[in-house]
């Protein structure tokens, strides 16, 4: 996902639908897919490249085979593959329905990465060698994107960094995005406010690669085209001139790439590791019938200067030399420390 996935907005449906349980399965299927196609045809980033008459006709024909509504959702993958919607997702109950996506062979990534990812890592902050601040920013997926919800998630993360900077004498920072495979970037960016400072940190382009909005952080507040979307209560000195090494991996995607883009163009910053996954498009949350939510791709993501990158390519390439058991033996960390130590 990308702001999953990136930056999301809740859009409301004006249409009031009958409760799903009062419908026969084929009625539910027709209602759902009618709304799905309507949303895609109006808002999907690459909508003008799709033959919607063919896509819709073929999908509706295939849907006749399904005896239950839930089984019919397997058709979403086929549809998304057909229209190239590789960053769109459908969420229903505990399940996600998406396009096939890019496959990364197991031999291309380390056992250390796999073990760490399988452990379901959470946000971490620690000191290395009593001199370097290490932040692990993992994926974060949730659906309540109200300002109150974002604040509730972001503030404790920010507080950990703020308290850490006060209680430690840090010479430079290491931001690890290798576990950030997608989610909502808003609380991540707010948590990292001290490192990013009062700056433009990104933006969005439409299908014609024209700028549609700019994202800024100002005094702990997150602004999208001048509208405040969320905030944290900031405290202490800023770290926007401190040295930062950003580490990425093959699975750094969507929100992970949004975070990396936010540091593009920042002074005293270096990128280390592997090129990112390549989900640098922006999604919005779009409600569909029957309590279903779609992450709908509508824009291209940019850095603070309006530049779009299909993938973020590191300044220093490091591959399959991860060590999450002992970070000081991790080649990415070693390169980051070299950068920070270089006066």
UniProtKB/TrEMBL annotation:
Signal peptide annotation: 1-19
Keyword Iron-sulfur: no
Location of the Tail specific protease domain: 103-319
Pfam (any one): Peptidase_S41
SUPFAM superfamilies: ClpP/crotonase (SSF52096)
Keywords, sorted A to Z: Signal
Protein name: S41 family peptidase
